[in-house]
Amino acid sequence: MSDSRDLPDFDALPPVEGMPKGCAWGVFDRDGHKDKLGCLNLLTADTVKAAYAEARDGVTISLNASMNLLKVPGGPRAATGHKVLSWAEDVSPSACGHLKVLDDEVSFNTQASSQWDGLCHFAHQGTGLGYNGVRVTKAGLEDPDERGDLPGLEHWHKRGGVVGRGVLLDYLAYTRAKGITYEPFSRYAITIEDLENVAAFQKTDFRKGDILIVRAGVAEALEGLNGEEQLGLMIKGQGGMAGVEGSEDAAKWFWNKHFAAVAGDTFAFEVFPPQKPDGSLGDMGDLVLHSYFLSMFGLNIGELWNLKTLGEHCASTKRYSFLLTSVPLNIPGLVASPPNALALF
Predict the structure, then answer these.
(1) What's the whole-model pTM score?
(2) Rounded Cα gap, residues 53 and 165, in angstroms
(3) Domain ranges within the chain, ordered by starting residue
(4) Of 269, 316, 323, 336, which residue has the fewest beta carbons closer than 10 angstroms?
(5) Which residues, other chains included, contact 223 with Cβ-Cβ below 8 Å and sequence gap of 6+?
């Protein structure tokens, strides 16, 4: 099944043994082949052609934050490193001393700035299984013979990257217009009702295969701060991060809208820390939307995108939809990647 017109709603998804209700494994399988793209299958030729109509003003906006956005010292993910190499001084001075040539080397963690979380990033924690029932391991992603069967981001290139209709829900601008205040660095949940209110306020409609983007103001609050200042914001918020509510009802809403992908400017797209069924606060393993989106729906999540300029342009033109393009790095077995995303108006 690959046509969005055939997609069952959340409550009608066929049960999958050992998995919670709402597991979409097998929905996009075709001709006996196990799917590796998930909801990107909704970007059909007709859907993409319709999205081209959004690019008519000659305006392009980058949605990518600086690769050294996060500078918090001592974090679990390495900061971006950039080394400039002079052929005359560093590569082979004796042989290349006369050459005026520069190279560079870059090292970074793919979670340290704007990113796509690929379908190998977060397994269903109870079973350890990833999207479509595969067991993703470090060894498997590093094995050239095994990783081809895993839903790594390199498979995006086989379909020509991602091109579709992007839709911005600018929650930050909406709250400013309505006199609502909140701290991006706090456990502030943006509810599904909030998202629907923003859509109504903007007069924004949704279509199957849309790429939904939510602006909450987190990434732009980090821009220009040093590591100690960023850490100060996080300490003040006691580790809380604003984001979309993490609940089964929220997961159901997203699936039933049949988005091709989702993204935002927050750390996890969903609010952190997550709330467990007993009402207590959990840790990363308790992220509800990550579990549904990545491991059960096959719905990629973009995080820490740079949405300030996009929000300002949408507000000035009263247009909140656009042609979105994105091409991750083409590395076999890649778990996450800078999005290299553009909005075209």
Answers:
(1) 0.95
(2) 9
(3) 4-72+112-344, 78-109
(4) 316
(5) 65, 66, 69, 306, 308
The CATH topology of domain 4-72+112-344 is Glucose Oxidase; domain 1 (3.50.30)
218-276 pLDDT per residue, tens: 999 999 999 899 999 999 999 999 999 999 999 999 999 999 999 999 999 999 999 99
User: What tokens does 306 get?
Assistant: 């740079």
| DSSP codes joined into one string, 318-336 | T--EEEEEE-----TT--E
Helix (H, G, I), strand (E, B) or coil at 341: strand
Closest CA to 184 of 133, 225, 128: 225
Q: Identity (one letter) of the amino acid at 245? A: E
Closest to 147 in 3D by CA, of 158, 134, 160: 134
Interacting residues of 332 by C-beta distance below 8 A, sequence separation 6+: 144, 147, 148, 152, 154
Tokens of 149: 């069967």
φ/ψ (deg, to 5) at 288: -75, -50
- Token pair for 218: 């987190």
DSSP string for residues in 150-161: S--TTHHHHTTS
